[in-house]
Predict the 3D structure of the following.
Amino acid sequence: VRDGCTHYASTVYQSPTLGAYGCTIVLAPQWSLRLGAEDNVLITSFVRTDMALLLQTEIQTRSWIDVLPSLCADARRVYEEDHAGGSSLISESLSMEVLARTFGAKLHKTEMQLAYWPAHSAMTDFSVEFDGVSLGVSVTRALAHPTAPLEVADALRLLQKKLSGVLKSTAACYNAEWRKQILHIWARSERVVRVLEEAYSLLEPHLIANTLCLVTHCGSLPELFEEKSTIRQMPPPRLKGAKDEQHLKVLAESDPTSAARTRAGSW
């Protein structure tokens, strides 16, 4: 335990890759991901220098029932540890899985381990270490209204909101050392990817500076986009001063009159 948090031994979970058709294919246990052949170089440049960057990737997965048991330990931590609520367990844990197995990122702190001043600041989902550098990671899904497709105006509002939150959480977080973040955006179709790309081109420069927008097309995992809000089950509150069963047993055994009552009852 250090600085109020439990720290785990760092492990690199990077998966094997192969090159094909000018792309790099990452081969994980239950999914594969396609990215540009030079994207690893671009991300390394982003980590080391100040730059705005938009990268597009595509992932093919099995069902979540198959993917979940195969998650690396860092992704399992994101999935299992306390979070701020909402419906993003799958998207955030799969984001950590992709970052770990594709780029060798290592989880540093989960959502509730990060602290902010002021306390009501925008929050980052988790932080990672990439090539020795700390980065924040914020995850979102480009979801359309149920009755209408996602349009450029919708995507622009989403990006403006999320990128503004990235800047605010970077400025407010006081127990992590990142200066820049990755905004990981999940898209359900190639059309949504194109809409996001067009919206990105319309953003103000100050919003995209020092942020990597990683857009991942995932059309094979509906659970990622249909996940419902999760409510962590908490034990019922105990009444103030109430004693648990073990405590009551100890009190009974220490009562000096209990032995006399026992003898009296046996006569």
Q: What stands out?
A: The CA atoms of residues 105 and 132 lie 9 Å apart.
